[in-house]
Amino acid sequence: MQKHIKQNSILVSILFLFIIMTGCDTSEQKSAAPVNPMGITVNGEMEAELTAPPNVPKPVGNRSAKKLIVNMEILEKEGEMAEGVKYVFWTFGGSVPGSFIRTRVGDEVEFHLKNHPDNKLPHNIDLHAVTGPGGGAASSFVAPGHEVVFSFKVINEGLYVYHCATAPVGMHIANGMYGLILVEPEGGLPKVDKEYYIMQGDFYTKGKNGETGLQAFDMQKGVDEAPEYVVFNGKVGSLTGDNAITAEVGQNVRLYVGNGGPNLISSFHVIGEIFDNVYIEGGSLINKNVQTTLIPAGGSAIVDFKVEVPGTFIIVDHSIFRTFNKGSLGMLKVTGEENKTIYSGKQIEEFTILKELPFKPCLMINLL
Ligand SMILES: [Cu+2]
After folding, report:
1. How far apart are the first and last CA of the chain?
2. What angle do CA 337, 273, 156 make, to 5 degrees?
3. Radius of gyration of the chain (CA)
4. CA-CA distances (angstroms) from residue 1 to 5, 232, 290?
5. Which of 96, 75, 79, 99 is nearest to 88 (CA)?
6. Which residues of the chain fall short of a pLDDT of 50?
7. What DSSP assignment string belongs to 283-331?
8. Is 260 helix (H, G, I), strand (E, B) or coil?
9. In the chain, N or C terminus with fewer CB closer than 10 Å?
10. Ligand 1 midpoint to CA 171 (Å)
């Protein structure tokens, strides 16, 4: 009898513990439960701010979900690929990459896509942020002089590529028809001091790299994946000299980086910096302390880093011939106080006269 009572009391204790533990689990799950985007109701409407690279629109911050009107016009226009090299770019909003679109999860986007009357070809848009067949492509095919309207609910946060998906798709993308749409989470991304928009693309001209004059698109080079130019923001030098992006020592910098392709994968790197955070492939997973991040064609990454010392930091595709021979070179210029502890600069420059060698006494070898 006593044995039974003892067994029962042990069972009751175990059951009690189980109930407490189960109760704890339930409350934790409740507090960590993600917001269902489909349950977010929109509150009013606004027109989306659109920006040309390297600029991005203002952060969404704490604004509520809205009906967000995007007015975008496709323009086929002649521009400069490199000094003296002209090219007819096909653009979303007049720039390569196209206008940056900034939304938040739960927004209902009403997309107005116009094809300028002076354009020669029909186009459309496939937004990777859209959940639906073709990412909007099937609903957005538009002839020159016409406008189409379609709408979508923004369900997944992240940084997404958009591009033209009209045949031949490779040609439309290769002519510059791509850009980025950012979907911020509820309450927005963590604040930083400076934000920029950079997108890589590979270009296929009839003439070899550097051949001047108006260059036509070369379909065979596109098929062969053998670009003459690999550039950031649509041209050689888009982010160098006076076009360099800037920051001050102590600031946190965020780069929204995309890769339009159409063919190449980018090994994105900033020489002399380490990315504190990388939102891998533009999604929600954050990797820390990254030197080079891989960005697939039709993909993206968000990189954050604090700039600690002044100087010019070179932005590259670390498939390095592309940088020094095909154009994928940008600059981040940082101004402010030196910090000799973090980086000393050149400390010693020694010279040795090698008297024993049959050189003239004035010949010196720099040991550094
Ligand atoms: Cu197109």
Report:
1. 90
2. 120
3. 27
4. 6, 83, 67
5. 79
6. 1, 3, 5, 11-12, 14-32, 359-368
7. SS-EEEEESEEEE-TTEEEEEEEE--S-EEEEEEESSTHIIIII--EEE
8. strand
9. N
10. 8
Count Cβ atoms below 10 Å from residue 199 Cβ, excluding itself: 29
Euclidean distance between CA atoms 331 and 244, whole angstroms: 5
Three-class DSSP category at 5: helix
Q: What is the pLDDT of residue 341?
A: 93
Which 3 state secondary structure label does DSSP give 194? strand
Report the C-alpha gap between 20 and 22 in whole angstroms: 6
Phi, psi (5° rounding) for residue 299? -135, -175
Contact 228, 203 (CB under 8 A): yes
- Written as six digits, the tokens of 138 are 């099937």
Give residue 27's pLDDT.
39
DSSP H helices, 184-228, are 219-223
Ligand 1 centroid – CA 280 distance (Å)? 28
Compute the distance from residue 50 Cα to the ligand 1 centre, in Å.
19
CA 124 to centroid of ligand 1, rounded, Å: 6
Joined together, the tokens standing for residue 99 give: 């206008």
Residue 167 CA, ligand 1 centroid: distance in Å: 8
Side chain identity, residue 217: F
Output the pLDDT for position 38: 85
Q: How far is the CA of 122 from the centre of ligand 1 (A)?
A: 7
- DSSP letters, 341-366, are TT--------EE--TTSSS-TT--EE
pLDDT score of 347: 84
CA of 94 to the centre of ligand 1 (A): 13
The per-residue pLDDT for 224 is: 98
Instruction: Report how far residue 235's alpha carbon sits from residue 30's, in angstroms, rounded to the nearest whole number.
Output: 50
Ligand 1: centre distance to CA 105 (Å): 27
